[in-house]
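Reopening this one. Same input as before:
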Amino acid sequence: MFQVPLLDIIGLAWFITLWLGYTLYTDLGKPRKHSLRSAMHRNRYRWMLQVLKRDNRMTDASILAQLGHGASFFASTSVLILVGLFTVLGATDEAVGLLRQIPFAGRITPNQWELRLFVLIVIFVHAFFKFTWGLRQFNYCAVLVGAAPVDKRGGHDDWVRRTAWLSTLASKDFNQGLRAYYFGLAVLGWFVSGWAFMGATALVVFVLYWREYRSEALRTMELVSDLDPKHGNMTPP
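Same output, byte for byte:
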């Protein structure tokens, strides 16, 4: 009979709550005012304004291609990780025996080992879908940039707002895929103990929050986005 210790249930509930809560706090609706997502959206808006003023858009196509390559790389990496996890899942007894030889690792049963691997598999399947959807949205954005009218007087504000927002949506899914990697690292603490798992999860949320809302990168991006006078309406459609 498959039995899960109470500490594992509490740890998994804590993990899901923190991940889901942070995702809703960060990504639900329009970007929060002082966040990397908001600062980057303003810079994407300025980017799309410049697209309309350029006859040759090879630079813009190159930037979008690089963004797409990043998403493609992590999607491929997620598949390789999943292959490795399924391989380890097929050798549960050997893996558990090896884990018991590690001094700081907890004593877990084969069922507990399979539960941990199953959680990791779900995480990286989620990451794969996020990266591939982000890649598709970057491709859609490239089509819009290729079809953009040439308007050196600064018109077509609706096109600018919607294209910038599509790029921001693609970036949001890409970031959610990266976030899955961070939380996947937190699950490694579960192989030590349930308490280490909960502590690692809280640490991951703290690191993510600090980088997105309190980092030097955020302050720099906000300063850059405010260098020029604001043109039109930068708020998402």
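So the earlier flakiness isn't reproducible anymore. For the record, The chain has a mean pLDDT of 87.
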